C-alpha cells in the first residue's frame, strides 16, 4: 500500500469502511478539511478520494448537508446479454467469478495444498460410513426416478426430527433443495425483486453476494464485532431503509468464525418483529463447534414466524451431495415449492441415502468424530500461526466452523500473497472475495479442515516462508 499515491490510500480506506459497513448507509462523511487534518494529508488529497468514491456511487453530496454513504448498487455481474454486442461479453468476462475461481483451483493446481475450499476434506469420508448408504440406495429402483418436488417424504420427516425445533413440527414446513445456494436463490426470488435492498453482515459468504448481485439486489452491509452483527448499526439502517430481509450467518460465521451472542439474537428477533422484516438464517456451521455448543438457532427462539431457516449437508457431510433444506412456516414453504417446480426435483438417490443415514442415527456419531478431528486440525494450524504474530498478523482462536480469518500487516497485499503462495503450492482465499466489491483490505481466509495434518504442516511452512519474505521486502 505504501507504493500507492496518497489519495489512493485514503480512497481505499474509505471504500473498505463503506463495503464492510463500518461507515453505514446514510452516515455522514467528515468535511474535507476535517478529514484531511485527522489523516495528516492535504485537503486536495481528500477531495480527490471523495470524487472517486462519488463517481462510483459509494457516496453522494447533497446541498447543505455534506456527503453521505449511499446504498450500494448491485455489482455488475450476470446482466442480460445483448446477443449482437461484443461489449456484453467483455463486460461479463471482467466481472469477478469467485465461485468458479474457487472450484477450479484443484483443476488448475492438482497438487496444491488446499486451504481455500470450505469443507471437511476427503479424510472424513471413510469414517462416516456414508458410502455404504449410497451403495444401498443405488440398489433401489426408486433412486433413479423423480420424488416429490419439495423433497423425499422420509428425508423431510428425518430433518424435522434432527432439527428438534418446536417451530418446525411438520414435514410440510420443509423443502429439500440442491444445496443451500439454491435455497437462498428460491428465498430471495420470492422476497425481493431487482432494485430492492437486503441487509447482511459484512464480510459474508461470497456465494450469497454473487447471487444477490445476479438478481439485481442492493446490499446494505452491517459490520461485525466480537459478538457478531452490530445491532446498533442494524437498528439505524432499519429505521431509515426498507430492506426486504436480513440475511445472516449467525453461528461460526463465514469467513470470520464469529458467533452472534445470545443477547444479540434476542435483539435481532425483536428488531425483526418491530419492523416486520424477515430474517434468513443460514445455519450451515451450527454443528461444527470445537468446544462449547453455540446459542440456540434464531428459528428456535422465534415467536413471530419471521425466521426462514436455511441449512445444508455440504458442511456437516460432503459438498458433492448438493443437498440442503429450507424450513419455515407452511405458507412460505408452499411458495418455495411452487418456485422449486422450475427445477423439478432434487437428486433422488442422494435423498434416499441421506434419509436412511439419518434414520439409523449415523449423523450424530459422524459429527462427534469430525469435531474431534477438526479440533486437532485447528490446533495444529494455530500452532503454526502463533509465531507469525511477531510479523504483525492477527487472528482469533477458532471456536467452530471451518476457518481462520487472518488480518495481515498493513504493508502486505493479500492478493499478491495469495498468488505467490499458489505458485508455491498452497491455495487460500483472499478477503475481498467476501465483500460486495473487490477492495484493498488486509484479510485472508484459511480453512483448517480440508487437509490432513501432514499437509497442514507443509502448507503452513510454505505460507510462513512467503509471508516472511514479503515482510522483509518492506523492512
TrEMBL record:
Pfam families: Aminotran_1_2 (PF00155), GntR (PF00392). Residues 4-72 form the HTH gntR-type domain. SUPFAM superfamilies: PLP-dependent transferases (SSF53383), Winged helix' DNA-binding domain (SSF46785). It comes from the Bacteria. In the C-terminal section; belongs to the class-I pyridoxal-phosphate-dependent aminotransferase family. Keywords: Aminotransferase, DNA-binding, Pyridoxal phosphate, Transcription, Transcription regulation, Transferase. InterPro entries: Aminotransferase_I/II_large, HTH_trans_reg/aminotransferase, PyrdxlP-dep_Trfase, PyrdxlP-dep_Trfase_major, PyrdxlP-dep_Trfase_small, Tscrpt_reg_HTH_GntR, WH-like_DNA-bd_sf, WH_DNA-bd_sf. The keyword NADP does not apply. Transmembrane segments: none annotated. Its cofactor is pyridoxal 5'-phosphate. The keyword Phosphoprotein does not apply. This is Transcriptional regulator.
Amino acid at each position: 500500500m505504501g507504493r500507492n499515491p496518497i489519495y489512493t490510500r485514503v480512497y481505499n480506506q474509505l471504500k473498505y469502511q463503506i463495503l464492510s459497513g463500518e461507515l453505514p448507509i446514510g452516515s455522514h462523511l467528515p468535511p474535507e478539511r476535517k478529514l484531511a487534518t485527522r489523516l495528516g494529508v492535504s485537503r486536495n488529497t481528500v477531495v480527490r478520494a471523495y470524487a472517486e468514491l462519488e463517481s462510483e456511487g459509494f457516496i453522494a453530496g447533497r446541498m447543505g448537508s455534506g456527503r453521505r454513504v449511499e446504498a450500494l448498487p448491485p455489482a455488475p455481474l450476470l446482466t442480460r446479454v445483448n446477443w449482437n454486442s461484443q461489449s456484453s461479453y467483455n463486460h461479463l468476462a471482467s466481472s469477478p467469478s469467485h465461485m468458479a475461481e474457487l472450484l477450479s483451483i484443484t483443476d488448475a493446481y492438482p497438487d496444491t495444498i488446499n486451504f481455500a475450499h470450505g469443507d471437511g476434506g476427503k479424510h472424513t469420508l471413510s469414517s462416516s460410513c456414508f458410502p455404504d448408504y449410497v451403495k444401498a440406495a443405488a440398489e433401489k429402483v426408486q433412486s433413479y426416478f423423480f420424488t416429490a418436488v419439495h423433497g423425499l417424504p422420509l428425508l423431510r420427516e428425518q430433518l424435522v426430527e434432527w432439527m428438534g425445533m418446536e417451530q418446525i413440527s411438520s414435514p410440510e414446513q420443509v423443502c429439500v433443495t440442491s444445496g443451500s445456494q439454491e435455497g437462498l436463490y428460491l428465498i430471495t426470488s420470492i422476497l425481493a425483486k431487482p432494485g430492492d435492498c437486503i441487509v447482511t453482515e459484512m464480510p459474508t459468504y461470497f456465494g450469497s453476494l454473487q447471487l444477490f448481485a445476479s438478481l439485481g439486489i442492493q446490499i446494505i452491509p452491517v459490520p461485525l464485532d466480537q459478538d457478531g452483527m452490530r445491532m446498533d448499526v442494524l437498528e439505524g439502517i432499519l429505521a431509515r431503509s426498507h430492506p426486504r430481509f436480513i440475511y445472516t450467518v449467525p453461528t461460526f460465521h463465514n469467513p470470520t468464525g464469529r458467533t452472534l451472542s445470545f443477547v444479540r439474537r434476542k435483539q435481532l428477533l425483536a428488531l425483526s418483529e418491530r419492523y416486520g422484516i424477515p430474517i434468513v438464517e443460514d445455519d450451515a456451521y451450527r454443528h461444527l463447534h470445537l468446544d462449547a455448543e453455540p446459542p440456540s438457532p434464531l428459528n428456535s427462539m422465534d415467536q413471530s414466524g419471521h425466521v426462514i431457516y436455511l441449512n445444508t449437508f455440504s458442511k456437516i457431510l460432503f459438498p458433492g451431495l448438493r443437498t440442503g433444506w429450507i424450513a419455515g412456516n407452511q405458507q412460505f414453504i408452499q411458495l418455495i415449492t411452487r418456485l422449486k417446480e422450475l427445477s423439478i426435483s432434487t437428486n433422488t438417490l442422494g435423498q434416499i441415502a441421506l434419509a436412511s443415514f439419518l434414520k439409523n442415527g449415523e449423523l450424530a456419531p459422524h459429527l462427534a468424530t469430525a469435531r474431534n478431528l477438526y479440533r486437532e486440525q485447528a490446533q495444529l494450524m494455530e500452532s503454526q500461526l502463533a509465531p507469525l504474530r511477531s510479523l504483525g498478523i492477527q487472528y482469533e482462536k477458532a471456536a467452530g466452523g471451518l476457518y481462520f480469518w487472518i488480518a495481515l500487516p498493513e504493508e502486505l497485499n493479500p492478493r499478491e500473497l495469495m498468488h505467490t503462495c499458489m505458485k508455491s503450492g498452497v491455495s487460500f482465499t483472499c478477503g475481498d472475495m467476501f465483500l460486495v466489491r473487490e477492495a484493498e483490505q488486509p484479510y485472508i481466509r484459511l480453512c483448517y479442515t480440508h487437509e490432513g495434518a501432514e499437509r497442514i504442516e507443509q502448507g503452513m511452512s510454505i505460507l510462513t516462508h512467503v509471508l516472511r519474505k514479503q515482510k522483509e521486502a518492506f523492512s
